Amino acid sequence: MSLELRGITKRFGALVANDAIDLKVERGEIHAILGENGAGKSTLMNIVYGLLTADSGEILVDGKVQDIREPSDALAAGIGMVHQHFMLVPVFTVAENIVLGHEKSKRNGTLDLDTARAEIKRVSDEFGFEVDPDAIIEELPVGVQQRVEIIRALIYDARVLILDEPTAVLTPQETDELLKIMQKLADRGTSIIFITHKLREVKIAADKITIIRRGKVVGTAEPSASQDELASLMVGRPVILNPDKAPHTIGDVILAVKDVVIKDPTGRAIVKDVSFEVRAGEVLAIAGVQGNGQSELAQAMINLEEHIEGSIKLGDDEIVGKSVKHALADGIAFVPESRELDGIIASFSIAENFILDRHDLAPYAKGISMFPKVVESQALKDAAEFDVRLQSVNDPISSLSGGNKQKVVLARELSRPVRLIVASQPTRGLDVGSIEFVHERILAERDQGRAVLLFSTELDEVLALADRIAVMYRGEILAIVPSTVSAQELGLLMAGVTNG
Ligand SMILES: Nc1ncnc2c1ncn2[C@@H]1O[C@H](COP(=O)(O)OP(=O)(O)OP(=O)(O)O)[C@@H](O)[C@H]1O
Ligand SMILES: [Mg+2]
68 with 74: CB under 8 angstroms? Predict the structure, then answer.
């Protein structure tokens, strides 16, 4: 099936999020869409899937104009979508979620649980997905949850599949598996629209590339184009993909983690006897395959975990046993792994989100008086510095694109005077231009004598920023190696392989 968009235009107030966009995706083609944060990619896809309505323009399937007003219309037309934030009910089983899909396709009518089980099995066998229809969603790894969304789309007979940043939350292994699945689907005639900020993936998977900037299609590129070429087409200027690190001067120990054990509510140790130090002026990266205790260790740095044993000292101050507020006030900047869960408050304005943890302090407030003008001018300054694409700082933060929300969190955390920066997946969802900026900024903080503790599953990021790399495996730190380590050796350590 082919999909064609003609002259799609969408405005939000004064902002033209999509400006007369034309796009054609042929049958069996993987069509990548590249564009900066806020370029209008998700908006366009939400229109095709019926979650938003265009102000003007047409959507054609196999040359026929479709009237798509809601997701059920899109599914009936053979268009499915996997969202960046999965739309599954966590406490339900795979089969229940598939039946629940209230976006029933008219073609299939209602599904009962047994039919759903059989359909899940049929699709799983066909594509080699190993998905148990009776597994509970929240107990499945993210990569498998995503497969459930793909299975759902296939069961409802989607022949055009939209994937909006599907790899942002996947491990490198899961990403490679997804790319293979996409290829298989395309070989069988499914057309795929693939949105990603990772140029490597575009080069591996895409047959065609369309580039969007500020709501307009600005060009197309071949997958043979180099990453540098793609980056500058996207951002409109050359991008430095690998920043230079200045030689660093190491100072005192800022963070001392000693014999830390973190337990889950059942008493099982997720982090086991971890000890390390981070000094002023250095970046220590914690690398590892997701799920080896890094998330819990990161959260423990500001007391976001319940059961912490051992000692975490910032200078001379013990953090363990105190509150989150205490840890932050003590001089820790914290970029959480999940901006949606821990980084922002969706119903608050952009301006309020820029100062979340400081809203009750000078210069923003005194006693019970708030000073909105001060809050607003600080927000305008931060937004300009971090290139947050917004209309008004008084809009709710939920109106921002994914990458721009992430920039608000980064601006808030990287622009206050602290001793230690703890950053988890800081560039998740950012476009290449913004990654360049954030990487330079983190290195500048290091050069000014802050200690940086970086948690990242992106090897490129770890190698670009770290002075030393601690590899976590099954809750332990297997080794701490200098950043001159080869990517191959690092990969082996992450898989739990040590020499000797
Ligand atoms: N509901 C809304 N109300 C107001 N503005 C919106 C709304 N939804 C999106 N926008 C604006 O439309 C523009 C395009 O956003 P969109 O989410 O499509 O970007 P994107 O290309 O997907 O970016 P990212 O790479 O960060 O995900 C942004 O400036 C965003 O702030
Ligand atoms: Mg988006």
Answer: yes
